[in-house]
Design brief:
heterodimer; A: 57 residues; mainly alpha; 3 helices; B: 648 residues; alpha/beta; 6-stranded antiparallel β-sheet; 6-stranded mixed β-sheet; 17 helices; 58% helix
Chain lengths: 57, 648
């Protein structure tokens, strides 16, 4: 539930990394946030897919 | 998230359909007045039930459907419903209105709809969306029972502070992301090893796995040491509280507290000096070349004195004078004159023009370096003097503290001697543990560097083909993303910790009436919340129930504000003032509406009256009264003129 201010600050800290890394991290954080209430989140397949898409590009 | 409207139907004692509109904007306070048993907590629980299907901690909630409605209904069983309308600004800064709905017909199912220009659109995975707005584990920090929030300030509930920071500030999301990326990286690594049997690749993978294991082990051991250190510190604090109760030695114990505080301050200053000296040493590396610089300057000066290097006068300038046969002062300069001969001599000894230029520039640069060296040496001397003075002070403070300890150990009062001896052994243990933690930190740092180097090595292994090459790319990307999150996590955690610490300090000093007594609030690196008194001694064990409530409230507000200046979480408090005296009650009414975006209070008439109500009145945008009807046991929500309710 990060607010806009918090989100912007976090995004700014990732700016120095490679754009591909930034894109993967952004996707991973969205996936994790969506399942944050789950003790066993099912996110690995989606993370793998995000990495694979990026590498194949 | 900004609450807009709550609609309840046949929910608990609320018969039929009833609505509350929430205030926001400049007058952002909503007050819901009700006597004990009128239904404040049920209305508060309605918000929790609607969004999360639970009653915010209460396990045995009883019948949800209104009993009168049940009796009224002859044919069909009536249902209880709760609908909550709210606004939320999403990741792209777009504000959207949502309607959440839950009924006893399908109590396990949250229905969440988004209101768009085209109409109402039902969301297929409501929990996933709600997790991005206000996840269940976070809501307790925004919707809470005012009388129970002192949990944060209790010593035995320290882990809750950490959990709150982790949950609210996305640290948990970052942590999970990092863990999953690392696990996926490990899978790619194993796949790669199976695909290609290159010796260098296998060696790097094996080595990385070993280093990772070693790091995990070191982290476990360090965590153990940290926990033990924390326990030892708790023992020291508890013993000190006990010692303070002994009147015969109170002055000594108080004095030692001051010594300990002074010692900490000196140590902190010494750390800063060490850092400054290190910075000077790194940036002023040229100090080591001082002799060479001075020698070079003297050679250049000597040459200039001998006329081999003109003092800033270029060769071309002299040639021009000889050609024009006129001096710059206007006097004639015949070619056979003594002056012209001198100038010709200078040209004969001069160097090629580019070398001459270089020498002139070098001379200037060397002088600048010498100035820099002198100033760095002066700064080092100043720091050395400061350090020597602080070392003396530190020794003196330690001596004084030891003398007090000795006096207490030989006081002749058995209880004091036992306590002091307990304190000494806990302190020794804490000192040993600090050393052990430092050693582990160093080991982990070294291992992390080794692992990063091995990742680079794996990324650069050449000659991989097809699938193996693709896996190598995936492995590198997963490792880089995990590393990026680790680095950002540390930095972000540090920024947020400092922000919250400052926030708690500011807010607590505004709310508590003994602000001169509690002078400092600290949130440690591992998120332990401490309050120090005017003598610099830990004061959390001594806080009253009301003060603990204020500390918890300060922490929650600071947390919400650290979440961003544009934070959009409402603060909904049930019975917020029950245990508070007049001054803190008034302070809350004065401060909180300006510190949070939306403030919803469920209060009894006795909780909010007199001066406190007067202070809050200009900020109240909506106000309701809960009228419990003794003839039917139901409650009616009655809207009142905002800020003008009974007792205003």
């Amino acid at each position: 539930m990060a607010s806009t201010g918090n989100r912007n600050q976090l995004a700014a800290l990732f700016k120095k990394y490679d754009p591909a890394v930034q894109r993967v991290v952004k996707k991973v954080l969205v996936l994790e946030q969506r399942q944050i209430d789950s003790s066993r989140p099912r996110v690995k397949d989606d993370i793998r897919q995000a990495i694979e898409e990026e590498v194949e590009q | 998230m900004i609450l807009e409207r709550l609609r309840v139907k046949n929910f608990r004692q609320y018969y039929g359909e009833q609505t509350i509109e929430f205030a926001s904007g400049n007058r952002n306070v909503t007050v819901i007045n009700g006597n004990n048993g009128a239904g404040k907590t049920n209305l508060f629980s309605a918000i929790n039930w609607c969004l999360y299907g639970t009653f915010g901690g209460a396990t045995n909630f009883g019948e949800i459907i209104n009993k009168r409605a049940l009796l009224d209904s002859k044919v069909f069983k009536p249902e209880a419903e709760v609908e909550l309308k709210f606004r939320h600004t999403d990741a792209d800064d777009e504000s959207t209105s949502y309607v959440a709905f839950r009924s006893t017909h399908e109590p396990g199912e949250l229905r969440l709809s988004r209101i768009t220009r085209k109409g109402v659109e039902e969301i297929k995975n409501p929990t996933l969306v709600l997790n991005t707005i206000l996840p269940s584990n976070v809501r307790t920090y925004f919707f809470f029972d005012g009388e129970k929030i002192d949990d944060f300030a209790k010593l035995e509930h320290e882990s809750q502070v950490k959990d709150a920071v982790y949950s609210v500030l996305q640290l948990q999301v970052l942590e999970r992301g990092q863990q999953h990326l690392s696990a996926i990286g490990d899978e790619y690594e194993r796949d790669l090893k199976k695909m290609d049997h290159d010796e260098a690749l296998s060696r790097a993978i094996d080595l990385r796995q070993n280093k990772t294991e070693e790091k995990k082990q070191a982290e476990i051991e360090m965590e153990g040491s940290r926990k033990e250190l924390h326990s030892a510190q708790l023992v020291i604090r508890a013993v000190e509280v006990e010692l303070l109760k002994q009147l015969d030695i109170k002055t000594d114990v108080q004095r030692r507290k001051e010594c300990e505080k002074h010692k900490e301050d000196i140590e902190q200053e010494l750390d800063e000096i060490a850092k400054e000296m290190q910075a000077l040493g790194t940036s002023a590396y040229f100090i080591v070349g001082r002799d060479a610089v001075l020698k070079a300057i003297s050679i250049i000066d000597e040459k200039r004195n001998r006329g081999e290097i003109p003092s800033g006068i270029r060769e071309q300038f002299i040639r021009d004078l000889l050609e024009r046969l006129t001096c710059i002062c206007g006097r004639p300069l015949p070619s056979d004159s003594k002056e012209a001969e001198l100038l010709k001599g200078l040209i004969a000894h001069s160097l090629p023009s580019n070398l001459e230029n270089r020498l002139l520039e070098t001379g200037g640069q060397l002088r600048a370096i010498e100035t820099k060296i002198s100033s760095a040496l002066r700064a080092i001397t100043v720091q050395k003097k400061r350090k020597a003075k602080l070392d003396d002070d530190l020794n003196q403070v330690i001596r004084q503290s030891d003398e007090i300890s000795q006096r207490l150990l030989n006081k002749g009062i058995q209880e004091v001697e036992i306590l002091e001896s307990k304190r000494q052994s806990a302190q020794k243990k804490a000192a040993d543990l600090l050393i052990s933690i430092g050693r582990h930190e160093q080991t982990i740092k070294t291992l992390e560097k080794d692992i990063r180097d091995l990742d680079e090595e794996l990324k650069k292994v050449k000659g991989l083909q097809g699938q193996a090459k693709l896996t190598q790319g995936k492995l590198a990307l997963s490792r880089e993303a995990a590393q990026a999150i680790t680095e950002v996590y540390e930095l972000f955690g540090k920024i947020m910790r400092e922000k919250i610490e400052q926030g708690v300090q500011d807010i607590f000093s505004k709310l508590v009436w003994k602000s001169s007594q509690f002078t400092k609030v600290e949130l440690s690196d591992d998120f332990h919340l401490s309050v120090f008194d005017r003598w610099g001694a830990p004061a959390r064990p001594e806080l009253s129930a009301g003060e603990r409530q204020l500390l918890s409230l300060s922490f929650i507000v600071a947390l919400s504000r650290a979440n961003g200046s544009d934070s959009t979480a409402p603060m909904v408090m049930d019975t917020p003032f029950g245990r508070l005296d007049t001054i803190p009650r008034e302070n809350i009414c004065r401060q909180l509406p300006t510190l949070v975006d939306q403030f919803v209070l469920f209060v009894t008439g006795e909780e909010l009256h007199g001066e406190a109500r007067g202070i809050l009145a200009p900020k109240i945008g909506k106000e309701y009264r809960l009228d419990w009807d003794k003839s039917n046991g139901c409650t009616e929500i009655v809207e009142e003129q905002a800020g003008r309710a009974q007792g205003a």
